[in-house]
Design goal:
This is Copper chaperone PCu(A)C. Pfam families: PCuAC. InterPro entries: LpqE-like, Lxx211020-like, PCuAC_sf. The protein has 199 residues and is mainly beta. It is built from 1 helix and 11 strands, in the order αβββββββββββ. Helix content is 13%, strand content 39%. The relative contact order is 0.18. Strands 1, 2, 3, 4, 5, 6, 7, 8, 9, 10 and 11 form an 11-stranded mixed beta sheet that branches. The protein has a domain of 115 residues: Immunoglobulin-like (Sandwich), CATH 2.60.40.1890. A hairpin with a 5-residue loop joins strand 1 and strand 2.
Length: 199
């Protein structure tokens, strides 16, 4: 009769009937890096979530995304100058300002207002641009504020469609297409902007 060496006995041979516990392992380098990356991503997203939940103050949305243009049309003209009219609506919580306009139909455009001068209607560049109030609208109408085409490149014929791009104070812009219509009224005189103001 012989006995097994002590080193070769199993756990059960010594009377211990419970299975051996697996050794405790520590996360490897790859697992630690993955956990750290998830923590950094979650931490970085917290300011964005807080910003999205804040209320009041000035909206961070681009002005162009908050503006809609409707009832747009352009006065027919053979040469020289013409004008575009429309309703511009602002759905944001802050005022939006139209500061410039362009169109392939003319060499340049200006934002105009109409004022009374010596008993006559006079149109001139609108200082500061066109303001569209928060949750409000601005109307471009004959005899009032309008977008002026200066130095037409070709006649604007009735029924034609012409694109107009308006630029906002935040640097964004939106383009709309307007139909050319006959209109004989509102023959205002034009008072160009002084040279010191870029006219």
């Amino acid at each position: 009769m012989f006995s097994l060496p002590h080193a070769g006995r199993s756990a059960f041979a010594s009377g211990d009937r419970s299975p051996a516990r697996p050794p405790r392992t520590t996360p490897g380098p790859t697992r630690r890096r993955r956990s750290a990356a998830l923590l950094i991503t979650a931490t970085a997203s917290i300011p964005l979530l807080l910003a999205g939940c804040s209320s009041g103050g000035t909206s961070t949305a681009a002005d162009a995304n908050s503006v809609t243009v409707s009832d747009q049309w352009i006065k027919a003209a053979d040469a020289g100058m013409s004008a575009a009219f429309a309703n511009i609506t602002n759905t944001s919580d802050h005022e939006i300002r139209v500061v410039d306009a362009t169109s392939p139909a003319s060499a340049r455009m200006e934002i105009h207002e109409v004022v009374e001068s010596n008993g006559a209607s006079m149109m001139r560049p609108k200082a500061g641009g066109l303001v569209i109030p928060a949750h409000g609208s601005a109307k471009l109408t004959p005899g009032g504020d309008h977008l002026m085409f200066i130095d037409l490149k070709a006649p604007l014929r009735t029924g034609a469609q012409t694109p107009v791009t308006v630029k906002f104070a935040d640097g964004t812009s939106t383009t709309f297409t307007a139909q050319v219509r006959d209109f004989a009224g509102n023959q205002e005189n034009y008072s160009p902007a002084p040279a010191a103001h870029g006219g």
